[in-house]
Amino acid sequence: MKCPPKSGKEKEVPRTSDIVSLRKKTDRGVSMGRSKLIIKTGCKHTHFTWGERLLLQYHHNGTNRYEKITSPTLLGTLLSKNERTIRRELKRGMVEHTASDLSKIMEYNAEYANNDAISKNSAKGPAIKLGKDWDLANAVSKIITEEKYSPYAVLQHFERTEWPSDTRICEKTLYNYIAAGDIPEVSEKDLLYQGKRRKPKTKPKKHSNAMNAIRSIDKRPEEANKRAVAGHWEMDTVYSGKDGSPACLLTLTERKTRTEIARKIPDRTAASVTAEIDKIECQMGSVAFRKLFRSITPDNGVEFSNATGLEKSVLCDSSRTQLFFAHPYSSYERGTNENHNGIIRRFIPKGSDIGAEKKSSIRRIQNWMNNLPRRILGGRSPLEALADELGIDFQIPNLLEIKV
Hints:
Elements: E1 10-12, E2 38-40, H1 50-61, H2 72-79, H3 83-93, E3 94-98, E4 104-108, H4 110-122, H5 134-147, H6 151-160, H7 171-180, H8 210-214, H9 222-225, E5 232-239, E6 248-254, E7 260-265, H10 270-284, H11 286-292, E8 295-297, H12 307-311, E9 322-323, H13 335-347, H14 359-370, H15 382-390, H16 396-400
Parallel strand pairs: 5-8, 8-9
Antiparallel strand pairs: 1-2, 3-4, 5-6, 6-7
């Protein structure tokens, strides 16, 4: 008697003796024909069928002339299932039997396990909304893995373009599907900051540098603190690992619109940082620069020590911006910029040699960040938000060196 074969690709169960060093049975009997049970090729997140449970019983208990094997790892190999799946199934179907010598033994019982599974499945709630909608699941998977979008950005992308199917889901539901493993090739590890906890804020330390104290963040205007208007930026550097080149990225993040500027510079020196800011001013012109860069808030790194040079225009004898230094060891005071640096690290992991990165690659990362739909901007991208603030005639593409 054979168990009915299942649809799809099928294969004959490999002989246990070919996988483990056990002596083969020499009896020629086939015992009800079950030595040739057919199972479907296994895959992740598949449930046990009756035939698979029966085969597990024969192998685990060593009955019906099957070689006894109790290792969940090898049983998983035989049944094309994960070791943890085998362990859970064995736990489900273990029952107490009385042996011929009247001793009590624990054995796996396929019928008991199958009845238990049927009972629990009948108590399930409604099927998930995603169901068998592989078009939606695969579209979500592709955007997250290839474009590195957040779940929110994925749904905003569908709203702006076209949904891949008739199914509609919310952001919380999508997060639940990812956590449950319902989205192919996507896990919580693919999401930014998943599982990470932010450090609690501590009391800011005083500035040790007198020049920085004069330009302390405490003196920054309220319009910058409250993100009331565009034009107030946070600045930092993203650098290579200890074995990499001295080249680094100069990153500037606009506080209100979250617009990002990322420039590759030769090293983390005050001269290189000042020279790059000079290039941006020359590219924009002094009037436009003063309109866009009302203030800049860096940390206390030595690369930002030329405060006077950073503030003074290279095109005229006047000030081009104001610098306000965050308190020492208070990166949360530049939280937007720190968050964006973390996003950049998704593309350029820590330890990478930034000197090996092409400027075109840096521009692509910048372009991706500035066109990403953001929840905090009501679904708009940073470029759209900045255009709303400054007007469509402002030369944003030229400033950012991106193709739009």
